[in-house]
Design brief:
mainly alpha; elongated
Length: 93
């Protein structure tokens, strides 16, 4: 598996954050890592990457399977199906 890592650097003077109260410039480097979409969710969970762009179902799986989003998923499912929230809560794991 080939991993392609590109580093983008900001042009001098463009990297300063004028809204920051700190005089230290923040790290403005972005690393782009090419990896199979099936591995992205696991890398996100392991804090190996901060985010990803992929096609469905990978984005939805990352959102739906995150325990922090359970109430949002249940609320959306209740609205989408027109079922009471109690019914949806019992139906979803």
């Amino acid at each position: 598996m080939a991993v392609l890592v590109l580093t983008f650097s900001l042009i001098a003077g463009c990297g300063t954050n004028k809204l920051s109260s700190s005089s230290e410039p923040k790290d403005q480097t972005i690393y782009i890592v090419q990896t199979p979409p099936g591995n992205m969710l696991e890398q996100l969970k392991n804090n190996e990457i901060d985010g990803f762009v992929a096609w469905e179902p990978f984005n939805a799986n990352a959102f739906i399977n995150n325990p922090a989003n359970l109430q949002k998923v249940q609320q959306y499912a209740a609205e989408f199906t027109s079922k009471p929230l109690e019914v949806v809560t019992k139906a979803l794991p």
